[in-house]
Each structure stands twice: as structure tokens, then as C-alpha cells.
Amino acid sequence: MTKWTPRHEAPEPLEGNVVATITGGTVIWFVLFLVQLPFYGWFDDHGHLWWLWTCLAGGGLGLIGVWYVRKRDAAIRRVAESAPTR
């Protein structure tokens, strides 16, 4: 078996509005939780209650993600501003 070696360099990572992406995903998780909440009894009766809690956990983790990427963006901006220009 031959060793896999790349034939070209990896592309640079895409940079976009990460805060908006994470916020959008977080909103979707919370909306899914709220849409499923009226059907709590049905989910409980059929053993699918974990669907409801998965959506809530996704929203909660999304809030942590929004906090994290906002701090990351602020740190990147601080470093860029303090770096000497050439």
C-alpha cells in the first residue's frame, strides 16, 4: 500500500461572518424546540422525548458558540490593530 501524499497545497480556510452563521443556527435550534414543545405528550408517549431536549441543548450550545466567536473576532481584531504595519 502506498502512502497518500497530497499533490497540491490545501486551500486557505474560508472566512465569513461566523457570528451570523452561529446565531442563525442557534435561532433555528430554539425555533425547533418551541415548535415541538406543544407535542411534549406525544413525544413522551412514543419514546421520542430526546428530540425535544436535543433541540434545547443545540440552542444552549449555540449561545456558548455565539459568545465564543464574538470573543474570538474581538481578539483577532485587537491583534490586527496592534500589529505594526509594514
Task: Give the gist of this structure.
This protein is mostly helical and 86 residues long. The protein contains 3 helices and no strands.
Shape: flat
Average pLDDT rating: 91
Tell me the β content: under 5%
Helix content: 55-70%
Q: How many β-strand runs?
A: 0
* Number of helices, where a helix is a run of at least 4 consecutive DSSP H or I residues: 3
- List low-pLDDT spans: none
Gap from first CA to last CA: 48 Å
Radius of gyration: 21 Å
Largest sheet: none
Order of helices and strands: HHH
Question: Structural class of the helices, strands and pairings?
Answer: mainly alpha
What features would you highlight for this structure?
86 residues, single chain, mainly alpha
Structural notes for this entry:
The protein has 86 residues and is an all-alpha fold. Helices cover 69% and strands 0% of the residues. It is built from 3 helices and no strands. The longest helix has 34 residues, at 49-82. The model has no long low-confidence stretch (mean pLDDT 91).
Q: How is the secondary structure organized here?
A:
Blueprint: H1 18-36, H2 40-45, H3 49-82
